[in-house]
Design goal:
- This protein has 467 residues and is α/β, with parallel strands linked by helices.
- Helix content is 26%, strand content 29%.
- The strands form four sheets. It has a seven-stranded mixed sheet. It has a seven-stranded mixed sheet with strand order 18-17-16-19-20-22-21, with helices on both faces.
């Protein structure tokens, strides 16, 4: 295979991580962008490595039974919703297989098979947080360029995959409540009419930079406008427009970010009007969400995730539960309503402050939270001080658990581990490192992110000498 070569009648066999289809050409693996199992397609080779090649579909000769027409006009250019070309039934089938493949190929440990994936009740409009980027020089498609027409280059939308400075304008997004479209499009129109400068991602200059919109299932809304220049008149104009035009916003804020990067975690959030937070309620537990808080982006499905995690943990009411990588304590506080004591560890200080406030908000006095890197905090001395865990819940980032955390788990040996992960590959790797002393009892994939290739997975491990 050579770069630029077009291969005819390529049969896509299965879906793999990152949403790609997998084919085999003369024994060599070929990853095909947007390919679905069952597709037969002409594929253009885009990259060739020693052990594999990559390609993209030039034309579909015979479509997969799971293939459908994408419903979003931005599909293919926007960096999200990479599986819109697949039916939701197909997406669930692929995600189930991705977890199985990771456990079989990476883990190579015994497990009782997968329970059927828990699909989302809503495959669209399910996200409670979206982040948009202003750009002074928006991305144009080849069709737009070749048309010879003039297009507005000041855009507000999403990054094009692989391009840090490439942003396409978004007219309609199917991921968040439609009122988010109204806010985004209204602010974009105001900025054009007032001739506000948009941020140039290469030159690092301009006024309007980012827009964050959050909402909850109890109908509270937060907007955070991020600007690069401390221009009081223009900031007030934007804030007044949002306040007057969208009275359902319950928390209106802005951030001044003149830095070279987009993160706002080290910057002050200025509350313009309303509360400085919003409240979410999951299964009777209230959560205060501040502008910098991490929270599950699918509230509806998070209810099922937490309920299933607790059900699979088999809590009786007298346990001490540890929650590693606790974030704002969302899982920990849910467990705290049913167990004797919860101990949470998280590296982001603001998240721990939220967790402590959420404990007070829910009148829970059996939850202790500690800030610091989990690999530094979770030690045998820490366990001696806080009590041995009867159940340990861990929900690490995509990279999985740090080796030092696994070392402590091997020493502490909590009777039951509930491992929640957004990356089945690193989850399988970590479980394999514990498989000589732990047996996998249950595995349940959960679809938190319809239209994408991401999948959450719950695995329950039990100490072998207690079985």
């Amino acid at each position: 295979m050579k770069r630029g070569e077009i291969l005819a009648d390529v049969a896509i066999e299965t879906a793999v991580a990152e949403g790609k289809g997998l084919a085999r050409i003369e024994g060599k693996v070929l990853f095909v962008k947007n390919g679905l199992p069952g597709d037969i397609a002409n594929v253009k080779i885009t990259n060739v490595k020693k052990d594999f090649a990559e390609g993209e579909i030039e034309s579909v000769i015979s479509p997969s039974s799971y293939r459908q027409a994408p419903f979003c006009a931005h599909f293919g250019l926007c960096g999200g919703c990479k599986w819109q070309q697949a039916t939701y039934e197909g997406q669930l089938h692929f995600k189930q297989n991705i977890v199985k493949e990771a456990f079989d190929r990476i883990g190579k440990f015994e497990y009782p098979g997968l329970e059927p994936i828990l699909g989302a009740p809503s495959a669209t409009y399910y996200r409670n947080k979206m982040e948009y980027t202003f750009s002074a020089k928006g991305w144009l498609t080849w069709d737009q360029i070749n048309s010879g027409d003039e297009f507005e280059r000041r855009v507000l939308g999403f990054h094009v995959p692989g391009g840090f400075a490439s942003v396409i304008n978004i007219d309609k997004c199917y991921l968040q409540d439609q009122r988010a479209d109204d806010i985004r499009n209204g602010l974009h129109k105001l900025a054009i009419e007032r001739d506000f400068s948009f941020y140039n991602l290469r030159d690092k200059k301009g006024f309007l930079r980012n827009l964050i919109i959050r909402n909850t299932s109890i109908n509270e809304w937060m907007v955070v406008l991020v600007v690069a220049e401390n221009d009081a008149a223009n900031i007030n104009a934007c804030m007044e427009f949002l306040d007057n035009g969208f009275p359902f916003i319950t928390s209106l804020n802005y951030v001044i970010n003149p830095k070279m990067n987009d993160t706002i975690y080290d910057l002050k959030v200025i509350n313009y009007k309303g509360k400085d937070h919003i409240i979410e309620n999951l299964n009777g537990v209230n959560y205060k969400i501040s502008p910098k808080s991490f929270f599950q982006t699918n509230s509806e499905q998070a209810r099922f995730l937490y309920s299933k995690a607790m059900e699979m943990a088999e809590i009786s009411g007298n346990e001490t539960v540890y929650d590693l990588y606790t974030g704002t304590g969302s899982i920990a506080l849910y467990f705290a309503t049913k167990c004797k004591k919860v101990v949470g560890i998280e590296q982001i200080a603001e998240a721990i402050e939220d967790a402590k406030e959420n404990a007070i908000l829910n009148n829970l006095d059996n939850a202790d939270f500690y800030v610091g890197n989990v690999e530094d905090m979770f030690t045998t001395d820490f366990i001696a001080k806080n009590g041995a865990p009867d159940i340990l819940v861990t929900d690490p980032p995509r990279a999985g658990m740090h080796p030092r955390v696994i070392e402590v788990l091997r020493v502490a040996q909590p009777p039951r581990i509930v491992y929640i992960s957004c990356n089945p590959v690193t989850q399988a790797r970590d479980i394999a490192l514990l498989s000589d002393i732990y047996a996998v009892k249950k595995v349940l994939p959960v679809d938190m992110f319809p239209q994408t290739f991401h999948v959450e997975n719950i695995a329950v491990l039990e100490l072998k000498n207690t079985l």
